[in-house]
Amino acid sequence: MTVLPDTPSAHHRLAWILESRELLRLAVPLAATQLAQMAILATDTIMLGHYSKEALAAGALGNTVYFLLWLVGCGVPMAVAPVIAHIQGQHNNSREGRDRHEVRIAVRMGLWSVALVSLPLMGMMFLTQPILLFFGQDPALAADAAIFTSALAIGLPFALGFQVLRSFSTALSHAVPPMVVLGLAIAFNALADYALIFGHFGFPRMGIFGAGIASASSNIFAFVVMLAITLGFPALRRYHILHRLTQAGWKTFRELFRLGLPIGITMVFEVALFNGAALAVGLFGLDALAAHQIAITIPSITFMVPLGIGLAATVRVGLAAGAGDAAGARRAGYTAIAMAGVFMCAMAVVLLVWPRQIATLWLPDIPENARVLALAGTFLLVGAAFQVVDGIQVAASMSLRGLKDTAGPMWLAGASYWLVGAPTSLLLGFTFGMQGFGIWLGLAVGLLVAAITLTARFVILSNKPLQREE
Description:
There is one protein chain. This protein has 16 helices and no strands. The protein is mainly α. It folds into 2 domains: 227 residues, no CATH class; 202 residues, no CATH class.
């Protein structure tokens, strides 16, 4: 066995190696969990597509409304992770009774926040039809989308509640249970879709309403199973998260909203940018829009890995920051940013070398698809660049969450996307006549600015002395 010499440089190298190992241990199941969430959405799309093209289109519209509202509501549940990580770092295995008490309050207030925000968000979901009509959508599709979201609304509180429990488990460095639960939820959702959309296993044929019921039921299923795990898994059970559930912890409640609302708004900023890009590309014709949808799918999938790394960074940075360990917080953040950047560079090489081959995974390489495939290949070349900076910016943003810094990243991200990225896209796409290629270049520029500013902010804040919380 090789033994490192007992020198400061050897200890320094060992610290970086151990940090990389711990970060990967958390990041792998977290990335798998994100991919599982995408698989659930893909299952709905596939099932509705086999039912009818009208149901598929209405489901896509309904999911757009649902996803935006879910993002708004999900900020506070996501803030549970850095709050608990700080508590864990602060106590550092001492005063475990107080440790468990404060963690329990954080989870409890997270669940309270879900109860509070779910009602208005569910109310908005029941307004899907007038919202879509306001944006000029087809009346028949808007009506069907409203039927879909009326069923989805039932599961929204449980979807947000699952995020609270997931944040609790992840912040305690137990990222595998949520991954397992979502794996089970994929199977549950597929069976429920098959039964309720098409009328199998003795159920009535309910079409798009059945798809909504299936998705809502899978959200309820995931929450119940995750709750059972938190109450039964020894490492989580000792926190007794349901003890004194009705007792308020107003300080923690306010902190969760202070941290969580900017998180939700930041996610809406980014999703709205990409949705806006799709609408802009659609103005250049069906071929351009089809190429955009093909090309954007690849970065959406690969993005789940740096997102998992970023979620792990929130915990690792939070643990160090809670202990007042500025060097440890820096090391965790820098490791996450570097790891995300290296992975996305590897993915960029794949896109640069085989853009057309990748595009043909979605469309056969036949003459009538030639223009779509050519455009998709061009977009993927830009995607190779923007997914690198996208991976860096998400790792930096989530490292900042570990420092309990969410308002600053919200403003930086919003300015990068909407004061730089969107205007650049419109300028290149329309004024300079570059069309879809210009839209994609604008996205890359916006993400580049976000990566630079967010990373710089993390460098600045993590180099400041951190006071151990009491």
